[in-house]
Amino acid sequence: MPGHWTAPAAVLPLGCALAWIIVGFGHGLPLAALALAVAGVVALRSSPLRVSGHEPLQAVRGAAGRGNTVVVLWRPGCPYSAALRRRAAREGLDVHWVNIWRDEDAFELCRSINDGAEETPTAVLLDPTAAGPVVIPASVPGIREAITGALTTGRTGEPRRRRSSSHP
Predict the structure, then answer these.
(1) 127-138 tens-digit pLDDT
(2) Does residue 162 form part of some domain?
């Protein structure tokens, strides 16, 4: 999964450089330590080490046999994923959050849906009656409609899908 360490690897040296500049201009060690601590927190929050809200895709697929299951593919550091997560939690929606940087199957699913891009958030409906995952709008109304079953079929009666997927 390429590129997922790029942001934290860039933030830490920048934080070190900023701390060095602060000390060099004589503003004191406390301010430099604060700048370094902020850089460390930002790097950790955008790294794949962030563990909040991850469920393995295979475990979610196993639970999907019981009915429609909404899965949101997300990655740390994505502001759109974080905003969707806050709104979905506020609405009390039943959503499974799968971190694409911690799950190879989810990473490949996300790339197959988005023409090779790590575009997140990507919401899919795992419907046992459909041939594969059905891509749904990554929004609270889209997720709400998918949970109630309104989006399982399009106007023609075929499952709605943004792009073809090789994953069941």
Answers:
(1) 777 777 889 999
(2) no
pTM: 0.64
Give residue 130's pLDDT.
77
Nearest CA to 163 out of 116, 103, 129 is that of 116
Tokens of 25: 């201009």
Backbone dihedral angles phi then psi of residue 124, each to the nearest 5 degrees? -135, 155
Q: What are 125's strand-pairing partners?
A: 70, 134
Is residue 66 in some structural domain? yes
Query: What's 103's domain CATH number?
Result: 3.40.30.10
Buried b / exposed e over 97-130, threshold 16 CB at 10 Å, is bbbbbbbeebbbbbbbbbeeebbbbbbbbbbeeb
Give the pLDDT confidence of 39-92 residue by residue, as tens digits: 999 888 777 666 566 788 888 887 766 667 899 999 887 889 989 988 998 998
| 100 in the same domain as 39 | no
Residue 25 and residue 79 in one domain: no
Determine the residue type at 38: V
Domain span including residue 13:
6-45
